[in-house]
Amino acid sequence: MVATGFDAEEWELLLLSPWTIATGIVQADPSSSGGRRRELDALMDQIRMAQATDESSDLVRSVAIELVAGRGTPAATQRIVESGAGDLRTNVLARCGAIADVLDARASHQEAQAFKSWLLSLAAAVAEAAREGGVLGITGTRVSKEEQAMLADIAGALRSDG
Q1: Which residue, 44, 40, 45, is CA-closest to 27?
Q2: Residues 6 or more apart whose Cβ sits within 8 Å of residue 1
Q3: How would you write 77-89 as a 3-class SS string?
Q4: For labelling alongside 33, which of 87, 105, 107, 134 has CA 20 to 30 A away?
Q5: Rounded to an integer, what distance in angstroms lies between the CA atom of residue 41 and that of residue 136?
Q6: 3-35 pLDDT, tens per residue?
Q7: Taking the domains of the chain in order of start, what are their residue ranges?
Q8: What is the pTM for the complete model shown?
C-alpha cells in the first residue's frame, strides 16, 4: 500500500526509514550479536507501539502498520548498505536527507515533524538498547560517544524542529 500523496519510490524510502535509522546507530558502534538483537528488538517494539496507539500521526501509523505486517523487512537493509558511493555512515545520512526532502515536500509541517520525531525516538531506543563497552556489557555505557554523534548527525540530516 502506498500512502496518499507519495509515489511508490517515496513510500519505499519512508517505509525503510526506521531500518535506515537503525542501521546508522548499530553501525556507529557495533555491539555483540546479543547487543544487536536487543537493538533490533527495541526498534520493533517501538514500531509495534506506534501502530497500536491512536497517539501516533497518521503517517507514522501507516508506516508502522506496513512494517508490522512484514513490508520493509530487515533484508531490505541491504539496499541501504549498498545505496550510493562512500561509507555506510555517509549513505545513511544521505538517505536521512532524502527522507527529510520527501517529508518536507509531501507532508504537512505537523505530519513531517511528527514523523521525524518518531524516527529520532526510534534511533534513541536502538542506541539505548544495549550497553556499549565494558565487560560483558555490565560496566559499559548506555549510549556510546559514537552513537551520540550519530544521533546528532541523524537529527541534523532530518532537519527536525525538535
Answers
A1: 40
A2: 62, 66
A3: HHHHHHCCCCCHH
A4: 87
A5: 19
A6: 778 999 999 999 999 999 999 998 888 766 677
A7: 8-158
A8: 0.86
